[in-house]
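#lab-general

N.A. 3:47 PM
ok so I finally got the sequence cleaned up, no stray characters, all 82 residues accounted for. can someone with queue access submit it? mine expired

B.Y. 3:52 PM
send it over

N.A. 3:53 PM
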Amino acid sequence: MALIITDECINCDVCEPECPNGAISQGDEIYEIDPDLCTECVGHYDEPQCVEVCPVDCIPKDPDREETKEELLEKYNRISST
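B.Y. 4:20 PM
back already:
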């Protein structure tokens, strides 16, 4: 699954620099995660770094974007090769 940032986001700016894939950016009101770039840090870390640093716990898995570890690793390999 890709991750999403909920409207509980306080725009604290700590998640964006932690994302190794550059999937997090400032949206109109809160930070957003590009699901095409989010691998939940598979290929980089054991745990999603944005989730680790988020002070308000507003980054759950996106139930509309279910992906297996294998699919996330394939996405990581695709992103890394470009």
